[in-house]
Amino acid sequence: MTNEELLGIAALNSWKLVIGRFEKHLDMITDEDLQRQVAPGRNRLFYLLGHLTAVHDRMFPLLGLGERLYPGLDTPYITNPDRAVTDPISAANLRKAWTEVNSKLTVAFERFTPQDWLQKHTAVSDEDFAKDPTRNRLAVVMSRTNHVSFHFGQAALAKQV
Amino acid sequence: MTNEELLGIAALNSWKLVIGRFEKHLDMITDEDLQRQVAPGRNRLFYLLGHLTAVHDRMFPLLGLGERLYPGLDTPYITNPDRAVTDPISAANLRKAWTEVNSKLTVAFERFTPQDWLQKHTAVSDEDFAKDPTRNRLAVVMSRTNHVSFHFGQAALAKQV
Fold first, then answer.
1. ipTM, two decimals
2. How far is Cα A21 from Cα B5, in angstroms, rounded to an integer?
């Protein structure tokens, strides 16, 4: 493997590790438990799962990987706070959406060459990207990986209640 | 910048971003607030800060960057759960330790060439590293960055109480 390849693989492995751990955590949680709040008065696990699924689904257009799969999740799980909107999806279907979105993203990331990782994401203009080439896909995926970790830390609190 | 350099910089930027955000969060928290639990019966912010400082301090030997600065933090903040041991350090000194450890690590990371990032960490043998070159410094730093994010998510819950 070249240095470039190894550097790209580190990001891919980090993504897979975090997603895999969160998925194991979800497997231990019943659909009823998903209705629990991570702390009194805070977000339900269901909301966090919807939020992470919606944010990851947005990566398809953001990284130039195609159309979104679940645009209907933005209003209840990104635009609005928890419990402002009735859940438009069942627990079983939300779990399926989460798995589907991440599986498809992972397949795409696994095919990325180092050059693919370093391409600009679609939210930055050609001009701005020329000035700052660090605004690439790799930065987005590392940011999203840390975003999962952030909410995973919260979800872990609910589990041990 | 070469592709290799850009790939290394993505990891450095992710580390700096997460540490910087957590530091801003700490700046808004009083020493009294550090005694708050992130949720009823859970870790205090003080414990999380001690834990993250100790874990990061361990990166000096783990990444071959020299001796640890605060070995005394392991017993109260890694080996033992919260409140099992009396805090051996004041809030002011713990904040100083956190800043010092991360500043020194960041300076070292900023000097890393792509080849430096890809060197093995000291917890893996030469033999195992030959089989699996992904067990490098980059993997450690990405893992620690996500570890901060995990506990930052918890710390953020305490803040808004």
1. 0.96
2. 30
In A, residues 94-123, which contact B (CB 8 Å cutoff)? 114-115, 117-118
User: What would the pLDDT profile of A76-129 be if each residue is shown by its tens digit?
Assistant: 999 999 999 999 999 999 999 999 999 999 999 999 999 999 999 999 999 999
Note whether B152 and A37 are within 8 A (CB): no
**φ, ψ for residue B136, nearest 5 deg:** -110, 180
Interface test with B, best of A1, A5, A14, A136 (most B CBs within 10 A): A14
The whole-angstrom distance between A72's CA and the closest CA on chain B is 26
Report how far residue A145's alpha carbon sits from residue B142's, in angstroms, rounded to the nearest whole number. Answer: 10
**Strand ranges (E), chain A:** none
Cβ burial of B150 (10 Å; 0-12, 13-18, 19+) is buried
Q: Name the DSSP letter for residue B121.
A: P
* pLDDT at residue B159 is higher than 80: no
pLDDT in tens, B49-77: 999 999 999 999 999 999 999 999 999 99
What is the C-alpha separation between B11 and B16, in angstroms, rounded?
9
